[in-house]
Amino acid sequence: MAHYVPPKQGKASQLFDVIVLVVLTVGALFVPLWLGMAGAAKTVAAPVTEPTWEALGQNAAQAAKYEALGYTPESAHDLILARFDYSFSAGALLTMIAVILLYYFLILRFSEMEYREVISEKFGE
Amino acid sequence: MADVDITSQTMDGMGPHGTKVGLLRVLGPAHVWALGVGIVLVGEYMGWNFAVGKGGAYAALIACWFAGILYSCVAMIDSEVTSTVASAGGQYTQAKHIIGPLMAFNVGLYLVFAYTMLEAANAITAGYLFSVVAQMTGHAGDLDQRPFIILVIMFLAWLNYRGVLATLTFNLVITAIAFCAIIILFLSTSGVLGGGIMEHAALFEGHELPYGWIGVLAAMHFGLWYYLGIEGTTQAAEEVRSPARSLPFGTLAGIMTLLIAATLTWFMCSGVLPWEYLGDGVNGSVAPLFDTARLSGSTGLLWLLGFGTLFATLASANGCINDASRAWFAMGRDKYLPGWFGAVHPRYRTPYRSIVFLVPIALIFALGAPLDQVITFSILSGLLGYTFMPLNIILFRRKWPLDTIKRGYEHPFHPIPAITLLAICSITFFAVFLGYGTQLVAMIGFYIVVSLWFHFWRYRFVNRGAQFTMPWPKPRGY
Fold first, then answer.
1. Backbone torsion region of residue B475, taken as left when φ is above 0, otherwise alpha when ψ lies between -120 and 50, otherwise beta
2. pLDDT at B11
3. pLDDT digit string (tens) for B43-73?
4. Which of B130, B145, B317, B349 shows its CA 20 to 30 Å from the CA of B13?
5. Residues near B387 by Cβ (< 8 Å), separated by ≥ 6?
6. Touching check for B218 and chain A: CB below 8 Å?
7. Please, which residues have CB within 8 angstroms of residue B410's CB and are 6 or more apart in sequence?
């Protein structure tokens, strides 16, 4: 294989590449947050109107720990009752699996093409 | 068999890149242990408890042990490959030689983002700790945590800038103190020394598996946090005096240390703190070992675990800066990123430009995102990296069988660890999907976009054959 000579990259182009990467990185985390699509929000499905430790499902030992931590039944209400919602649709799960498989297929295929070039130039045909 | 000297100063990746000065080989196995455990031990001091929130206390214990199996496989696989690929960049350099450039670019980014996000999470925790100490010592009102977050990141970046030996010696000392603090807390609260305060049965009553078995699966997401970062030992490969011996020894000793620390941490915290409080790392227990010490009633334990938490966060952030900058530096040296990042400081012999560049990135996340989101971002990058490892070792053994390259360490039972690792990674992807599916898809979407960007644009600036810097024979099948 003919020896590949890469073009020399100018400083402005190098800077632009860095900016692209930083923007994409920050976007990957913050866009879901800004759009309110970030998961993990726990919700209280059935609030207790007049909370007591018993009504919150706490036995004496559990209640004593909360009191030692400075909580009252009122202040601990949301902390104790909030739960994740793990219901999901088969479509969402399949989408996730498809995205992950697509991703690995893409990088393994492109990597193999690039790798053959590397080995060919390093060791000769 | 090819007689490969992996301690060579000229064949480990420096010469072909045109770098005039290389990184200094000054580290021993204790530094490797300190780098690995130092990064990870903070996972026992904060973050792991989100696993309790996702599935309950028992689910977090099961996650702890399954994640332990995952990381034992990671440590075994990593030890074999790294004892042969002794070059900065760790898994990035492995991927470059074994799978291909695009995979290497992705792995490099996994490393940088896993460590930079972990660094940001550490800084957030350190800021929280300062605010708690301020309240305990009489400060009225809420303390602004931001100056402390900035100070922690800037100070540690400066330390890293000045030299690797001082950086990792500092890590060795504070990591050892943080580990001893966990042991002392265990001895003091479990009943081994004096009266115990554990109430597992009473605290678990009625809340054994609050989400059922799906909660056990979901808990695997944050179960990784007990050990995330142990694979970072490989980043020191180019600065270790004897990589073939020190890297496997330091890495395997590190995972054993962490298995002990993680189980003890679960035992203490779940026996003292109610699960709902323990499992909410934002509004409840940000630092569970510290909270356990608070409820022990001992002022001495309170201060010890306060310092333990602070030291663990500093050690972790310190190691993260070290590792992220090495991965970024290695990619710059190969022109996967602008070559400007591939420079070594002429006096301190550190990748100083990479260290400085990553400071504002860490600050953006530390100051602008909630702790659980930052942790999830780090875990996802780590998880993608662990999914790469089974592919890596299978291809490594296929392309260079055991009789073709001398390895410093050969891991047993191949390919069982690789298959086990792949299976647990699949379960963990599902665990992240439960509750954090949007972030998962956003993250993979990000990696797809940057992969296309690399393949169709950035790769044109990369020398082809010169990337392959290991003195290995031609791989089989090519």
1. beta
2. 40
3. 899 889 999 999 999 999 999 999 999 999 9
4. B317
5. A104, B422, B425, B429
6. yes
7. B80, B402
Q: Does A33 touch chain B (CB under 8 A)?
A: yes
Task: Provide the mean pLDDT of chain A.
Answer: 89
Euclidean distance between CA atoms B309 and B298, whole angstroms:
16
Task: State residue B16's pLDDT score.
Answer: 37
**Res. B8: pLDDT tops 80:** no
Residue B35 phi/psi, 5-degree rounding, is -65, -50
Establish how many alpha carbons lie within 13 A of residue B200's alpha carbon, considering only the half-sphere containing its beta carbon.
11
Q: Which long-range contacts (CB under 8 A, 24 or more apart) does B466-469 make?
A: B466/B16, B466/B17, B467/A118, B467/B96, B467/B101, B467/B334, B468/A118, B468/A119, B468/A122, B468/B96, B468/B97, B469/B11, B469/B12, B469/B13, B469/B15, B469/B16, B469/B17, B469/B87, B469/B97
Q: ipTM of the predicted structure?
A: 0.85
> What does the domain layout of chain A look like in residue ranges?
43-83
Gap from A69 CA to chain B (nearest CA, Å): 8
**Residue A102 with chain B: CB contacts under 8 Å:** 448
Structure confidence at residue B375 as a pLDDT band (50, 70, 90): confident
Q: Measure the CA–CA gap between B8 and B5, rounded to whole angstroms.
A: 6
- Nearest 5°: the CA angle B272, B48, A46 is 70
Q: Tell me if chain A has a CB within 8 Å of the CB of B73.
A: no
Domains of chain B as residue ranges with CATH: 27-465 (1.20.1740.10)
Listed in sequence order, the residues at least 6 apart from B464 whose beta carbon sits closer than 8 Å to its beta carbon are A3, A4, A117, A118, A121, A122
Amino acid code (one letter) for B181: A
Tokens read off for B151: 């100070």
CB spacing of B435 vs A28 below 8 angstroms: no
| Percent of residues, chain A, with pLDDT higher than 70 | 94
pLDDT of A40:
59
* C-alpha gyration radius of chain A: 27
A108, B391: Cβ pair inside 8 Å? yes
Instruction: Give, in degrees to the nearest 5, the angle at Cα A61 between A55 and A65.
Output: 90
Q: Which chain B residue is nearest to residue A16, measuring alpha carbons? A: B338
- Which residues in chain B are closer than 8 Å to A6, comparing Cβ atoms? 335, 460-463
- Six token digits for residue B307: 């310092």
Helix, strand or coil, per DSSP, at residue B413: coil
